[in-house]
Design goal:
104 residues, alpha/beta, Glutaredoxin, 5-stranded mixed β-sheet, 5 strands
Length: 104
């Protein structure tokens, strides 16, 4: 399982290769805290097949702005650098697993 904190300067190199689920979040966000254990479980179940990248929107406004993040949590799934899916708000584990499986 790879859950990594990503900054503006690291973002493109992080999503460039493989399957990466990006969690745009902030520490003060209640729903962001609710989805954190779901993402941890997803990471455990997917192992090395998926990287989960966490982007703190307060600390990394450039990336959040580039992707038009208006609500958090927003999850964006990237495959080899291309954005393939977006989810806004807390999503159940089963829905996220299905999204990852569809793009594997």
């Amino acid at each position: 399982m790879a859950i990594v904190n990503v900054s503006d300067s690291q973002f493109q190199s992080t999503v460039r290769e493989g399957l990466v689920l990006v969690d745009f979040w902030a520490p003060w966000c209640g729903p962001c805290k609710m989805i954190a254990p779901i993402l941890e479980e997803l990471g455990k179940q997917e192992g090395d097949a998926l990287t989960i990248a966490k982007v703190n929107v307060d600390d990394n406004p450039e990336t959040a702005g580039q992707y038009g993040i208006m609500s958090i949590p927003t999850l964006k799934l990237f495959k080899d650098g291309a954005e393939v899916a977006t989810y806004v708000g807390v999503r159940p584990l089963a829905e996220l697993k299905a999204a990852v499986a569809a793009h594997r």
